Amino acid sequence: MREHSHDLKYPNEVNDLINLDDPLIHGYLLRLIGEDGITLIRNMPEGEVTDEEICNALNPLRAVSKAADDRVKKLNIEIKAAKEKGEETKKLEKELAAAEKEAVTAKENVGDEKEITLNTVRKILFILYENKFTICHRERDANSGWLTFRWMINMDGIYHQIEREKKKLYRNLVKRKEYEDNNIFYVCPQNCLRLVFDEATETEFLCPLCGEDLVFQDNEPFKELLDKRIEEFEETA
Question: Tell me, what DSSP letter sits at residue 85?
Fold first, then answer.
């Protein structure tokens, strides 16, 4: 097992499973794609799949209900066509009655199942794609010209991505600490805004939004917090 800075571990093989319950990985993905996104990754079907297939996997009871409704619609169409041709419809009508009963039961079974919509699935997939966590292949139907996107999760680069994010956060903390060290701040007592000394003098120490007198802000507690966060990063480097 190879190890990297900040105690990040890399899998031996590129296809090793990612532990989504690892606090580091879970926290990173939570900020990136939310709980629905983590649920999507946990329940992603194997192989290359369409967004609709993913949505059905995330909403299994709704998928059953939709299939039952589609069956009812199909039978109604077949019965109408048969009647127009003067054909016998008793068998189809019997099938329709059973299908309608199944559709009602399926709809009742949906209950409190949390729905993750197709639009949400697509949004999550494209966020993952932008961060190189999915592989996407496009297929164009020769007759209709319709594009079908097929997706597969590829989390091999997540450890490197987290490492980059941590370095970026560290740089931002250092820059923010320098900013806090090099400035004197005044704030509006109504929490309208926060100004550095030069900006406050330009407004004659009056809030430009509400007119209240600006007051000096002691930023030492915030600077101490920044120092603590920076130290934590440096200790794990």
Answer: T
Distance CA 227, CA 96 (A): 70
| CATH code matching the domain that covers 19-59+115-154, chosen among 2.40.160.20, 1.10.287.110, 1.10.10.10, 3.50.50.60 | 1.10.10.10
> What is this structure's pTM?
0.63
Which residue has tokens 């004659």? 204
What pairs with residue 136 in β-bridges?
Answer: 151
**Alpha helix segments (H runs only) across 43-157:** 51-58, 60-84, 90-110, 118-130
How is the chain split into domains, by residue range?
A: 19-59+115-154, 60-110, 160-235
If you ran DSSP here, which 8-state letter would residue 6 be given?
Answer: G
Which residue has tokens 């993905």? 29
Angle at 119 between CA 112 and CA 110, to 5 degrees: 20
The residue written with tokens 């209709």 in the block is: 144
Q: How far apart are CA 24 and CA 21, in angstroms?
A: 8
Do the Cβ atoms of 20 and 12 come closer than 8 Å?
A: no
Q: Which two tokens stand for residue 155?
A: 């989390």
Q: Identify which has the larger pLDDT, 165 or 5.
A: 165
Positive or negative, the CA dihedral 69, 73, 74, 76 is: positive
More confident residue, 76 or 144: 76
Give 30-58 pLDDT, tens digit per residue: 999 999 999 999 999 888 999 999 999 99
pLDDT(122) > 90: yes
Q: Which sign, positive or negative, has the C-alpha torsion 107, 108, 113, 115?
A: positive
